[in-house]
Amino acid sequence: MRDFLPGELLRRRYVIDVVRKVYELYGFAPIETPSIENLTTLLGKYGTEGDQLLYRILHRRDALKRALEKDEVTESELSDLGLRYDLTVPLARVVAQYGDLPRFFKRYQIQPVWRADRPGRGRFREFYQCDVDVTGTDSLLAEADVLTAVAKVLEELGFTDFTIQLNHRRLLSLLIAAAGIDPEQEESALISVDKLGKIGREGVLKELTGRGIDETGADRLLEIIFRQGDESDQDLADRLKERLGSDDARQAIDELLEILDITAGGPAGNRLRLNPGLARGLGYYTGPIFEITVEDLAGSLGGGGRYDGLVGMFGKNPVPAVGFSLGLERILLVMEERDMYPPLQAGPQIVLCTLGIERPQAFAVAEKLRRQGLRVELYPETAKLGKQLQYADSEGVKAPCAAILGEDELKNGCLTLKALASGVQETVPVDEVAVRLDALLEKPPVD
Q: For the segment 150-172, what is each residue's pLDDT rounded down to a tens digit?
């Protein structure tokens, strides 16, 4: 968990603004949900390991004291609330709770989530997710919608080397069976397979056997899911159909191929790649699943999938749903490492420096500048001009321009503007500062 200083917060807001703009372009409407949910809402939705990473909130002091005074204390007596683990489960609760939502509810949500983890580089206990979901339809156009929106976000941010890995949750169960692995070990096996991009084939093989899975079955599973040479998506799909044989496998594979076909004309079209080794770790996925990978980056920038059974856990009727979640922190880290941000300025465009001017008069001039839409900071103390200019150009401020207000400027209704990078300066009427500032800043440096 971190503090965000102005420069970092400006970068975060830049990325969030791009995400929000694109999500709304694709017809998604915003919602927000509380940071705290009932534990009954959260537990049992993320698998065994996920449940262990939930932040639980203790009861208030008096209730906690009474509970601790008893000989035996149940978990619910200590805590029945938790910080949200993701944004998908709260969405499922909302869809089940409110009866006046659109039949096809397209929502996006950008909020923090919390996980009681020991995070590695680029990961944190508190982090933001940027989710986009469609509920109310089992049409694969919903998958295409969220995949395309996410791909468009990454394109707008300047990413050119990302791939969206695509698999199917039902296909994973069939692969486990085809490898001869006990169905009771499926969840454990998939937890290991989900780490394939992080620890490689040998690392997964070691972890699978460490979890008690027979080495022959583990080898067979990895042999099935790895591509053979330069195998195309269609060739891979044909091989899996032949290897697995069942109608259920053919149906799942055909759904993946249809997603590739639907999205071919959009931003996600040349980014999708079938990957039978992709195993999203959350327990609520029921259909196609996806994850974004970037060259030279362990882990992913985000992922998602179809979760048709989740909303029904909170209401009487099942509601089909699919969604994608972008990991804001990972995106920010990669963009910073690659110097992908456009010029962003936090703080003032102009620092107003005064010489022998009364505070009310200086404040009034600053307000005139602000009414022109300029970001203005008024130097608050009496000081020599050099000290004021030095402050305006200091780290953490770095205003592009200083405006000097002395007695002559005040008398004539003008300001002397000084471009701090080039040293160029000129005197302009106060009312014309906004329209003349850009031209001043573009002038070449003073010899």
A: 999 999 999 999 999 999 998 98
Side chain identity at 393, as an amino acid letter?
D
pLDDT of residue 162: 94
Provide the pLDDT for residue 83: 93
Closest CA to 166 of 298, 323, 291, 293: 291
Residues of CATH 3.30.930.10 domain(s) within the chain?
A: 6-177+245-337
Angle among Cα 319, 154, 227 to the nearest 5 degrees reads: 80
Mean per-residue pLDDT for 239-268? Answer: 93
φ, ψ for residue 401, nearest 5 deg: -145, 145
Which token pair is 411? Answer: 């008398």
Tell me the DSSP string of 356-397. Answer: S--HHHHHHHHHHHHTTT--EEE--S---HHHHHHHHTSTTT
How far, in Å, CA of 123 to CA of 192, rounded?
19
Q: How many CB atoms lie within 10 A of CB 341?
A: 15
- Rounded Cα–Cα distance for residues 92 and 62 (Å): 33
The third-level CATH classification (topology) of the domain covering 6-177+245-337 is BirA Bifunctional Protein; domain 2 (3.30.930)
User: CB neighbours of 70 closer than 8 A, spacing ≥ 6?
Assistant: 77
Fold designation for 350-442: Rossmann fold (3.40.50)
Q: Which amino acid is it at 287?
A: G
pLDDT digits over 22-74, tens only? 999 999 999 999 999 988 888 887 777 788 888 888 766 666 666 667 666 56
**Domain(s) of CATH 3.40.50.800: residues in the chain:** 350-442
- Closest by CA to 433, choosing from 360, 387, 364, 372, is 372
Range with the poorest average pLDDT among 89-93, 193-197, 401-405? 193-197
Helix (H) or strand (E) holding 123: none
Contact 286, 248 (CB under 8 A): no
